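user: can you give me the structure for this one chain? tokens are fine.
assistant: on it. calling the predictor now.
[tool input]
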Amino acid sequence: MTAELHATGCLVNHKKVMRLMQESGLSVRPRRRFVATTDSDHDGPIFPNLAKDVVPTGPNQLWVADITYIAIAAGFVYLAAILDAWSRRVVGYAITRRVDARLALAALRAAIANRQPPKDCIHHSAIAARNNAAEDYRAELEKHGLRGSMGWRGNSYAESFMKTLKARLPPRQRRADQSRAKNQSLSMLTHQ
């Protein structure tokens, strides 16, 4: 606000602007903190991008995975979700307080249990998804005949879903704890 006033030629300092805003019942919206959920500099092996030119014609041909954070009053919880690219439905998810390989693995196991995918179903995630490059995760993919795929692009289904999910969640103040955030997220995940 102070910079905008300066641009119009009004000379005022930030303290006066803050005081006048408070007297008028206005407040500054705090900047959102950036939370990294990926690490493109991981040491894990990288799958080739098999999803690049795939246009699914039915379910369980291409799954896309992503991880995001959900702000709660006490910090953050992390959501790992796997979507079927054809139906654009969540086939598996997990929510925890830590972003690690166990989170991604729990979502993968939930997806496998829910869908029993055919052999050669492509599982695509971002190259930066260090959790999906973890040895246990890769072993789970291999055990069920899923073909791993990674790329900088091609995950737009999952990214779009995560953005929509966050936009529809109530404000942070009403998501006071992990269990409430989990319940609100679950109802949105299961009623899409």
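assistant: here you go. The longest strand covers residues 62-72. The helical segments are 2-7, 14-23, 101-115, 135-143, 156-168, 178-190.
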